[in-house]
Amino acid sequence: MILQSTQQLIDERQKTHGDAHKLTNAAIKAIVVHVPASTLLMAGISWFMILNKLMRLLYNPTNIDTWQDIEGWAVLGRREVHGNVEKVT
Please, which residues have CB within 8 angstroms of residue 69's CB and are 6 or more apart in sequence? Predict the structure, then answer.
């Protein structure tokens, strides 16, 4: 039952996100060659998740959930780098 549900989820994601995971994988391989690991680690997982969401948007730019996910991950990345501080201008 769990494997069937997992396969259904994978199939549904393929319909809505296409091969975004393949693009993300290729981008990460290119990025890690040119960007120091310390820079990548500074933002934690946030940069990776934003990259993945951007790749998903290439397949489905109208998916509001993906845009909202990017907003959330950007906030988390900022907090990871700068702490839980709001910039006031």
Answer: 49, 53
